[in-house]
Amino acid sequence: MTGPFPFPPAATEEILGWTSRRIASGPDPKHGAQAHAALDPVLGGSITEAGLGAEAAFRLFTETIVPSTRPFGHPTSLSFVASAPSRAALSFDAALGAAGIFAGNWDGGAGAIHAENQAIRWLADLAGWGPSAGGVFVAGGTLGNLSALHAAREWKARQAPRPDRWAVLCSSEAHSSIKAVARVMDVEVIEVEADATGRMTAEAAAARLTSAVFAVVANGGATNCGAVDDIAGLAELAERHGFWLHVDGAYGGAALADPALREAFDGIARAQSLIVDPHKWLFAPYDSCALVYADAGHGAAAHGQQAVYLDTVDKTHWNPSDYALHLTRRARGLPLWFSLAVHGTAAYAAAIGRTREIAEALAEGIAATEGLELILGPQLTVILFRPLGMGEEAMVAWAEGHRRSGALLCLPTRWRGEMVFRLCVVNPETDPEEVLAVLRSLVR
Ligand SMILES: Cc1ncc(COP(=O)(O)O)c(C=O)c1O
Questions:
Q1: pLDDT tens for residues 146-199?
Q2: Which CATH number goes with the domain that contains 373?
Q3: Range of the domain at 111
Q4: Is 234 domain-assigned?
Q5: For residue 85, is it within any domain?
Q6: Of all protein residues, whose CA lies closest to atom 4 belonging to ligand 1?
Q7: Distance (Å, whole) CA 242 – CA 235
Q8: Ligand 1 neighbourhood includes 225 CB (under 6 angstroms)
């Protein structure tokens, strides 16, 4: 063991052993955030001049860091948009880290990039896009939306006079990242009131269109309520008015793979870009977002970095850094590729279909339970409901109690100003009967 960082093989074995056991067991549902005051006495000061050594440092990870994180990968995690990585994807992710691949350009990561592009192609096929489609995996939906909307504005600016201020139009149910991206891009957001189910119609969008609009963002699964906007109507509007149609499918884009849900996305073949987060509903670990352009050339026209030290990079091949706002990148699409390659797309369709059935069973069970009111859903796999006669404080306390016990992560949200409970199913191993048994404690 030479060099400045001696690390015995036994320590590597220990980490790999823990990794392997963790992949088999999944997360502990009782885990959750701890306060700074609890963490600091243990983790504060863990960077020392002499170093703690492998055993002590790794123990901090297994005994303090991991238990103080939310078990999103557990089947009882039904809040926010959780995550349900397949064991294939998780195992492979560990190997990917070890491979140390630079996937910013073809020179650095050709094989990895070519494989990632197979997964991108699968998504492009699901959207109904032709051979000019292509894209890249970025860190998350926020960066995917930013990169797509930047490409959209560049595209529009090549064909239209610059207005005083560009605008992006989206639903009142659009994800918060759209407003965040608009702030970064310094563009106005025209927010169109969604209908009673949370869906933006083309008619409502048309009424708010202005000549400054360079892009419309359609929800391909609104985070809070699961609604899919009128993509076909918006595509028609886009063709008539010459704006870019971007589909934010960070959560819901996975539904394209389920024949029973595909219809909700009719018209997507006429959109210009799509994002889908594999770490949400495509059974991949954090963090990744597939950003796909119907015509990858529009992505390349907007992105990419030039520098003299990069002049030697082979520009004749597919360089992921040309399609989004990034340069160095991990091949973060590869765990999805591996899991797809191992299991096949039919298994993916079946697993997504299973989550739909679980959401349907939950909605039916809620509707059939006296004292619970089903408010909306399932739309894709999101359900909103409320316990009749329960105050907000009691709802929060109930949610917190069950989160702590590990029985269920079901947190409140708001719908039309009122506090309601929200469930979002992305895990095909969620047991609807087990969840319903917990929900019935709301009315006992
Ligand atoms: C519809 C939608 N868009 C965008 C995002 C942002 O994605 P990320 O958290 O990966 O940045 C989310 C995250 O939940 C989302 O649900």
A1: 999 999 999 999 999 999 999 999 999 999 999 999 999 999 999 999 999 999
A2: 3.90.1150.170
A3: 94-343
A4: yes
A5: no
A6: 141
A7: 10
A8: no
